[in-house]
Amino acid sequence: MLSFILKKFAGRHHRKYIEKCRPIVARINEFEQQYQQLTEEQLRAKTEEFRARVKGGETLDQILPEAFAAVKNAARRMCGRSFTVCDHELVWEMVHFDVQLIGGMTLHEGRIAEMATGEGKTLVATLPLYLNALTGKNTQLVTVNDYLARRDSEWMGHLYNFLGISVGCIQQQMHSEQRREMYGRDITYGTASEFGFDYLRDNGMATRKENQVQRDHFYCIVDEIDSILVDEARTPLIISGPAPIEREQPFTRLKPGVEQLVAAQLKLINHLVKDASDLLEKPALTPDERQIAAMKLLQVKLGMPKNKQLLRLQENPEWRKLLDKTDVEMHSDFNKTELYKYKEELFFVIDEKNHQADLTEVGRKKLRPDDPDAFVLPDLASLFIDIEKDTTKSPEEKEQAKRDAQNRYEVVSEDIHALSQLLRAYSIYERDVEYVVQEGKVVIVDENTGRIMSGRRWSDGLHQAVEAKENVTIERETRTYATVTIQNYFRMYEKLAGMTGTAETEATEFNEIYRLAVTQIPTNKPGIRVDLNDSIFKTRRDKYNAVVKQIQEAQARGQPVLVGTVTVEQSEVLSRMLKRANVIHTVLNAKFHQQEAEIVTRAGQRGAVTIATNMAGRGTDIKLGEGVRELGGLFVVGTERHESRRIDRQLRGRCSRQGDPGQTKFFLSLEDDLMRLFLQGNLASKIMEGSMQEGEELEHKWLNYSIESAQKKVEQQNFSIRKRLLQYDDVLNKQREVIYGIRNAALHSDRPKDIIFEMIEEEIASRLEAANYGGKGDANATNLEALVGWLNSHFPVSAKVDELTGDLETLLKALVERIRKAYALKESVEDQAALGGLERYIVINAIDHHWQEHLTEMEELRRSIGLRSYGQKDPLSEYKGEAFRFFEELMNNVRLQICTSLFRSATNRDAFENLFAILSRSARMQGPAAAPTALGAAAASAAPAGEAPAAAAPEITLPAVTIRRETPKVGRNDPCPCGSGKKFKNCHGA
Could you report the per-residue pLDDT of 296-311, keeping only the tens digit for each? Predict the structure, then answer.
């Protein structure tokens, strides 16, 4: 009864929204009927009329009915015409349905429109994109791959062009000029990664404003929003390059030891399994023997959970129940010590859920039998203290001893880390499941889509470890230049919207992270898909046999079948079984997007059998062949339940479009990862306690509910992980906004002098405060002398300690004014045309250098901060505090580099020499300082190689250094001594 009542209220808010939209739909259709009387030129002129009205102050909501009507009328006029789309001839036969108009309104309002497969989401997007493009700002549509971006932009582009709206498409490998042109158009199509990387290149790498390609982040529609903003969002977008320090890769050196360790573990596991099996098969098994066998099985599960012999033993319901019971008991707090003892008998222990593998003491001794301290990091602080106390060593020997200790620490640290990653690579990451090897490279396979993720690499050395395992070239470590998460990139848009067939299960996440509401749009025709109950089998072998039998039966009657698999390995296993059964079929591993779309399009033909990863072909309609409707439509078969219900719903949604018939059914086994790891309690054992025999099939709707409840738990767990990761990234995102803000201000300013002097003022204020100037107590004389020394070494101001008088604010202004006057002198001798570029370079170079180092430090902090939880501290709070300190240090370093570079750089050699000559005369006129001024030192550091600074004032005491020119002075128009044949000013004097 309660379920019946809840179902009555479910979806009520969706129905209210649809009813609210109905009157607007009626107005749109009225306008569209009026527009049918217009000529094509008159209809096209409506676009300029709408633009003028928007500029005149009308809102987009006011124009919406007329704009939507114009798009619908244009689609009607295009019917029957042929167009070229991705080198194929297509006949336009689409006019917007009423539900599509509602979908367009939903997208315009910044919501997620949940529309079933085949309801024409591609056409729906034309309505809000056209409307928002009337503002003159760039509107964007994001798709899941390059092929769909090109296809949709060309296909819908004919409609936009008909109305006088320009459309562009961003593709991989495009040049900056092309990208700028595409973003310059009214509407731009592309993938999330291309948009994100363009943002990073514009804000983190461009050195001139002409290098920036994006315009603004105004309005964006994300197609298949759940795939992009949920599934792909777990991997941040990173632009990386070679690490500055090239170290020898330890993976190749350490690999043989790990291989031997894994082989030894396998041998041990096989012995344990055999011993347990022999005991359990004894006719008269005593309780003690039963307990010994159970503990041996638990050790096997801890050391190699996917061991085939273990999985085979678990097919016996009694033995599986025994193992599950022992597992629960031993993981209780009461048995912690005993469980640790059993773990220590193995070489390493695998945590399958968290993808971790940990060495035991036995494993450590096997890897390093001669070095008991091989896995202990040296205590550098204690070592340094002992070195300082050693009176027998000279200062040089102490420094060398410290360097040796530091080097040993780095080697031990790297070796421990590399061994840990190699162990994970060998024991957890399987070929053709988590990755594939193509053209001598390890390529990651997306666990949700089954697609190859070209260019993506696991971080923290894991990718190098897998490369070592597979004997392919180990690529050198990289350094992050710029990074942003998908979540934080899309949260920059003023208006964000999305469309998908499956968003309701992730509605909470969309609302909490993106402030996006999900609205279910009704189908144009009632859906008549039949979702059959899941079939559960004891083993994977039984499951695959049942799948093959089902496919054979469907093919015999001519019904097309689309088989969804979770991994590449599963698709290949099933393909081999179908070949043995003489079933003609197509396998799609989703390696080529264009081929993927074409194969999936043909999946609805009579008698066709297509094996694909669960998400292959998203965005592509499967149209039924002749006579297939009468056979029941497309039959979708799932070979495993995914951790997320949404992925299963997407697979089901591949059939039954626009009121077509269709059937779906999932085949499961108790050996599937979801059933093994996440099914609640000992339900699997309880199921098998009955009379379930090998090859027997279980099917009941209650079992479906149990599986869905397990999926809900996993979804909640994954959401909490993603939310936590975003909370960490939000900290870095705020810092990124500040840095990119300063960088862009410098990039877009003709003369970034104000930014430079703002930084100088902040740096001097910081140093005055550090010297306690203007504080409660007296300023320390030593600190003031240090401050004066710093000022004179960075700026040609000849400051003296006795000049530091007055309140803090007055003194700060006076010092900055002196630096401004010195800089005005520098400006007078510089090349005025190049001065802005020099100032820009000073700011951007300082920011880029320290920001990249900061990103590396933040990555290290993020990886290590979790250990703070052992000290009863919240890692997130600790991370925020540490990140703030890191950022303060970053800004200090940036300011200091700007201060250092300002008078140590020049637009050309002549400008430098003229400046130094003027400053030297100025120094002579001013007379000696209380302390030696650093003018000579500053100028010397600024002087190009091979140039001697001009003679300084005799009053300034400097160490006696004889400077000899190795080569005669070269004039700017003389031939360059390097032998290039160019003038010196165009070669090494540039």
Answer: 999 999 999 888 888 8
Distance CA 255, CA 426 (A): 10
Which H or E element spans position 66? Answer: helix 60-78
Q: What angle do CA 49, 53, 54 make, to 5 degrees?
A: 120
Helix ranges, 865-957 (H): 875-902, 909-926, 935-942
The distance from CA 790 to its chain's CA centroid, rounded to whole angstroms, is 42
User: In degrees, to the nearest 5, what angle opens at C-alpha 737 toward C-alphas 736 and 741?
Assistant: 115
Backbone angles phi, psi at 95, to 5 degrees: -135, 140
DSSP state of 698: B
Residue 703 has pLDDT above 70, yes or no: yes
CB of 167 closer than 8 Å to CB of 157: yes
Give the amino acid at 167.
Answer: V
Rounded Cα–Cα distance for residues 489 and 203 (Å): 12
Q: Which residues pair with 221 in a beta bridge?
A: 141, 497
The letter for the amino acid at 321 is K
Query: What ranges in 368-461 are assigned the alpha helix state H?
Result: 380-389, 395-427
Average pLDDT, the chain: 83
For 986, residues 6+ apart whose C-beta sits below 8 A from its C-beta are 976
Ordered alpha helix ranges (H), 238-378:
250-280, 287-303, 308-313, 317-330, 336-343, 361-367
How many Å apart are CA 423 and CA 254, to the nearest integer? 10
- Which residues share a beta bridge with 88? 85
Comparing C-alpha atoms, which of 622, 627, 584 is closest to residue 606?
627
Two tokens at 111? 């919501």
**Phi, psi angles (nearest 5°) of residue 647:** -65, -40
| β-pair type (661-669, 586-588) | unpaired
Q: What is the dihedral of CA 821, 823, 829, 833, to 10 degrees?
A: -130
Instruction: Give CA–CA dist 762/459, Å, rounded.
Output: 37
pTM of the model: 0.76
Tokens of 742: 């300063």
In this structure, are residues 568 and 450 in contact, taking their beta carbons and an 8 Å threshold? yes
Output the pLDDT for position 552: 94
| Helix, strand counts (H, E) of the chain | 36, 23
* Partners of residue 612 on adjacent β-strands: 564, 588
Type of residue found at 335: N
DSSP H/E element including 637: strand 634-638
CB contact at 8 A, 466 and 429: yes
Q: Which residues touch 926 (CB under 8 Å, ≥6 apart)?
A: 798
Q: CA-to-CA distance for 275 and 309, rounded, in angstroms?
A: 12
CA–CA separation, 729 and 310 (whole Å): 41
- Dihedral Cα 600, 605, 611, 616, nearest 10 deg: 20
DSSP helix/strand/coil, 962:
coil
- pLDDT per residue over 616-643, tens digit each? 555 567 888 888 889 989 999 999 888 8
Q: What CA–CA distance (Å, rounded) separates 654 from 531?
A: 12
Residue 239 has what DSSP assignment?
E
Which residues, including other chains, have CB under 8 Å from residue 953's CB and lie 6 or more apart?
920, 923, 924
- pLDDT tens sequence across 322-347: 888 888 888 888 888 888 999 999 99
User: What's the CA gap between 396 and 402, in Å, rounded?
Assistant: 10
In the beta sheet, which residues pair with residue 531?
664
Of the candidates 537, 617, 611, 598, the one whose C-alpha atom is nearest the C-alpha of residue 569 is 611
β-bridge pairing 586-588 and 609-613? parallel
Q: Which residues pair with 82 in a beta bridge?
A: 91
Average pLDDT over residues 373-384: 84
Q: Taking phi first (over 0 means left), then psi (-120 to 50 degrees means alpha), and beta for anything else, what does residue 164 get?
A: left
How far apart CA 340 and CA 330 sit, in angstroms, is: 10
Among residues 639, 591, 632, which one has the least CA distance to residue 611?
A: 639
Q: Tokens standing for 271?
A: 């012995």
Distance, CA of 58 to CA of 351 (rounded, Å):
60
